[in-house]
Amino acid sequence: MSIQEISWQQELKQALLDIGMESELYTSDSFLLLKFLDNDKLYLNLLSITIHPGSAETLRLQQEYAASGNQLIQLWEDIWADKPKQILSRIRALMGKNQRIHGRKTSVVNITQPQADTFLKENHLQGSAKARHRYALVFDSQFVAVATFSGKRRMTRRHEDYTSVELIRFATADGFTVQGGLSKLIKHFIKAVLPSDVMTYADLDWSYGKGYTKLGFELVGQIPPAEIWLDTVNNIRYFPHRLPEEISVVIAQLTGAEKATYLKSLNYSRVFNMGNLKYIIPCK
After folding, report:
1. Pick from 23, 57, 81, 195: CA 20 to 30 A from residue 107's CA?
2. DSSP secondary structure letter of residue 193
3. Is the pTM of this model over 0.85?
4. What is the pLDDT of residues 116-145, one digit of tens each?
5. CA angle in degrees (0–180, nearest 5) for 200-59-232
6. What are the chain's domains?
């Protein structure tokens, strides 16, 4: 294990301690894990961008923890470097250490794309994304949660008038958990837009989707782990089909092994995610 790896892992451990969460690092086969001293159900799998197990091995480990009733979060070195505040906020929420507000004490307001962008960049691990519909929950004159949705998409394979929308992003303000907040936003959206269903994805790096199940969503599919190329100079992740155009033009002429060699010469590292769970809630 390199000094650089120890540095970011110890930095994370200290940052957790600074907000009142004691933890320990330990190894399990080829993995370096972190456990919390006051919570035996939540664990972090700390993945280096330089040397790490493969996606199949990592998925097996996650499934082993899930089968034991535990949650194993996949935390990559570059994500920690880019989003430390959002990661600590997410962990604090999972540990039940946030201030709790009941959704009935909030009000729903329409917000603009720039307002959604500002909130989500501050509070969502994946930042913001363009959306057709945007709502916030307001408590004590501040936004405490934001949800964004796509426009209606016709699903003619079901029937001519069937429409589906996607819940694109949901996040709460740092330090807050809004009980029933997502449910309130979804109900408001459904009443306003009248889709046939709402679909969304649970990021398996961070979630098993239990919260969606509690809201009445049905699990309808699973997307397997995906290869990602990380630009280590600018700390930007790309799916293979979304690499910068000048790179895509070159690698289109190369074999698989040649592509990997070329990308590594440009300071790209191969990483991956755990995939996603797809959920749908019928609306009518």
Report:
1. 195
2. H
3. yes
4. 999 999 999 999 999 999 999 999 999 999
5. 80
6. 3-94 (3.40.960.10), 99-195 (3.40.630.30), 211-278 (no CATH)
